[in-house]
Each structure stands twice: as structure tokens, then as C-alpha cells.
């Protein structure tokens, strides 16, 4: 087991109250409809294929690890850690699931859910960054305290939080898995948000490596203010996005007076130009 995993394991143990004596520490069971997802769960995306695989395993072997819960004011239990197991158990047709009931504050419950997801590497980079930011904004932690609580280096927490400076469109690409965390850090080297978006579209469409994105980001010149007053409408921006995705290269739409305008389709090699031409001719 790596040092990282050991640190995370101790972090989760430290968030939970001591377990009762062994003679009474066995997991209880609860009806599956008594469990309710935590609205503050750091994880927002659940992969259907992965849930189906887990459901198949649960049908064969059952739920091997109890779901961590706390009592709800309105009855039943709120899931702290294990929502993925609960969802898969529903798909598997289970009527009851094993649970560990703990009395935790809102802060401790959120931290426990975050640490469990980090242990399982279930969060995408933006979910992780937003969870770290919540620990700072809502629960008053410093970056050092966040790092200690989740078992990571302070630099890892700081780098994760920096991703939140990216434009919303780029954040969406990271959440959807179209770009990696490394791509996100590379894009932060670009001089302005519009350049970040442009390079992110290139990276996603052309499957650029992190190193190539770094090179383009470092070499990019700021376009902010290059054309005063030439702010593109949302419709033009949407058209650029759709054309860029369709052709696999960033497309620039330049509206002029009236209904006139220009369409620029840059390419970086003759092979790419051949691909663009093939795409355009295939769409006739």
C-alpha cells in the first residue's frame, strides 16, 4: 500500500468517533428505502456502466462494506459515505443493506464523505477542488488544515484550488473528462480567459498532450482588448464552438457589417488540412 493510501486511511479514521467495543460494533442493517442521499455529497457524477458492474458484483457477493450513515431529523438515515454502493444495491434488487450509524456534525460528515471519495479516487478534479473550497469557505479551514484532514500535501490542495480560476466552459470539459487535470493546470499558463477557452477547445478536439497545451499556453499572446468593441454575441460563440467540434480545429467566426463576415479555419499541418477537407466534403 502506498504512503498516500495510508495517509488517507488515517485521515478517514480521524474524522469518525471511536467505534464502540467490539462486542457491539457489528454493522446494523437498514431497509434500502430508509437511506437518503446526502445533498452535500462532494460527488456529483455517477457512471452508469460502473454502477451496473458494481450491481452485478453485489448480486454475487452482497455489500461487503457497510454504508456509513447518520440519523435524519425526518426519519431514516442520511448517507455519509457509500452512496455509490447504495445506488448499485438498488439496481441489484436488494431490500436491505448493512450500515454503520455515526453521530457526526455537518462539517465532520462532509469531510468524511470527501475523504472516502478521495480514497476511492471517485471524484473528478473539479469536484475535488470545489469540495476543498467548501471546507475553506463554509467550515473555516485553512489550506494547511484541509491538507491535514484529507491526507494530502498542501501543494496538492493549492494546485486543485487553482483550477477553479479556469473559465466555466473549461471547468465543464474537466468535469466531463474531455480534459485532464494536467490539461487544466497547463491552461492556467495562458494570458487570459478567452485564450484558455480557445486552447481548451483545441486540446479537446485534437486530443493534444499536456505538454503541447503547456507549449501553446506559454506562447499565446493575450487577445483581450485586441479589438475594442468587437465583443462576440452568444450565438456567434456557440457557432464557433459547434464548428470547432465538428472540424476538430478551432474555427473563428468574424462578423462584419450587415450579414457579411469571415470564417477562418487554421491548420497546423497538411495532414490536418486533408482531414478538414475530407470532413467538409463528406458533409455535402
Would you give an account of this structure?
The chain folds into three domains: 160 residues, Conserved hypothetical protein from pyrococcus furiosus pfu- 392566-001, ParB domain, CATH 3.90.1530; 59 residues, Orthogonal Bundle (Arc Repressor Mutant, subunit A), CATH 1.10.10; 48 residues, no CATH class. 52% of the residues lie in helices and 11% in strands. It is α/β, with parallel strands linked by helices and 284 residues long. A five-stranded mixed sheet has the order 1-5-3-4-2. The N terminus is likely disordered. The protein contains 13 helices and seven strands.
Task: Offer a concise description of the structure.
By secondary structure, the protein is of the alpha/beta class. The protein has helices at 3-15, 48-61, 83-92, 106-119, 125-137, 143-150, 154-162, 168-175, 181-187, 193-206, 210-219, 234-247, 270-282; strands at 28-31, 35-36, 67-71, 77-81, 96-101, 252-255, 261-264. Strands 1-5-3-4-2 form a 5-stranded mixed β-sheet. A two-stranded antiparallel sheet has the order 6-7.
Overall CATH class of the largest domain: Alpha Beta
Order of helices and strands: HEEHEEHEHHHHHHHHHEEH
Work out the count of structural domains.
Answer: 3
Through-space gap between termini: 56 Å
Question: How many helices does DSSP assign?
Answer: 13
Task: State mean pLDDT (0 to 100 scale).
Answer: 79
Biggest sheet descriptor: 5 strands, mixed
Please give the order of strands in the largest beta sheet. 1-5-3-4-2
Radius of gyration: 24 Å
Q: How is the quaternary structure best described?
A: single chain
**Secondary structure tally: strands:** 7
- What helical percentage do the residues reach? 40-55%
Strand content: 5-15%
> What is the CATH homologous superfamily assignment of the largest domain?
Conserved hypothetical protein from pyrococcus furiosus pfu- 392566-001, ParB domain
CATH architecture grouping of the largest domain: Alpha-Beta Complex
Shape: elongated
Structural class: alpha/beta
Low-confidence stretches: 1-26, 225-229
CATH topology of the largest domain: Conserved hypothetical protein from pyrococcus furiosus pfu- 392566-001, ParB domain
Amino acid at each position: 500500500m502506498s504512503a498516500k493510501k495510508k495517509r488517507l486511511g488515517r485521515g478517514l479514521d480521524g474524522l469518525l468517533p471511536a467505534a464502540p467495543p467490539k462486542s457491539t460494533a457489528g454493522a446494523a442493517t437498514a431497509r434500502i428505502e430508509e437511506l437518503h442521499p446526502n445533498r452535500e455529497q462532494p460527488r456529483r457524477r455517477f457512471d452508469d456502466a460502473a454502477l451496473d458492474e458494481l450491481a452485478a458484483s453485489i448480486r454475487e457477493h452482497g455489500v461487503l462494506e457497510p454504508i456509513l450513515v447518520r440519523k435524519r431529523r425526518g426519519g431514516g438515515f442520511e448517507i455519509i459515505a457509500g452512496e455509490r454502493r447504495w445506488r448499485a444495491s438498488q439496481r441489484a434488487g436488494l431490500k436491505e443493506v448493512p450500515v454503520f450509524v455515526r453521530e457526526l456534525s455537518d462539517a465532520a460528515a462532509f469531510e468524511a464523505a470527501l475523504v472516502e471519495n478521495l480514497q476511492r479516487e471517485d471524484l473528478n478534479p473539479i469536484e475535488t477542488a470545489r469540495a476543498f473550497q467548501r471546507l475553506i469557505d463554509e467550515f473555516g479551514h485553512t489550506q494547511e488544515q484541509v491538507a491535514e484532514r484529507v491526507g494530502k500535501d498542501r501543494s496538492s490542495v493549492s494546485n486543485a484550488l487553482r483550477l477553479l480560476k479556469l473559465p466555466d466552459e473549461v471547468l465543464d470539459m474537466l468535469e466531463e473528462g474531455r480534459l485532464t487535470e494536467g490539461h487544466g493546470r497547463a491552461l492556467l499558463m495562458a494570458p487570459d480567459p478567452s485564450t484558455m477557452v480557445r486552447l481548451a477547445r483545441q486540446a479537446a478536439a485534437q486530443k493534444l498532450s499536456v505538454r503541447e497545451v503547456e507549449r501553446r499556453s506559454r506562447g499565446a499572446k493575450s487577445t483581450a482588448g485586441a479589438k475594442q468593441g468587437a465583443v462576440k454575441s452568444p450565438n456567434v460563440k456557440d457557432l464557433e464552438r459547434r464548428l470547432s467540434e465538428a472540424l476538430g480545429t478551432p474555427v473563428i467566426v468574424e462578423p462584419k457589417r450587415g450579414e457579411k463576415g469571415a470564417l477562418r479555419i487554421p491548420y497546423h499541418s497538411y495532414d490536418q488540412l486533408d482531414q478538414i477537407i475530407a470532413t467538409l466534403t463528406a458533409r455535402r
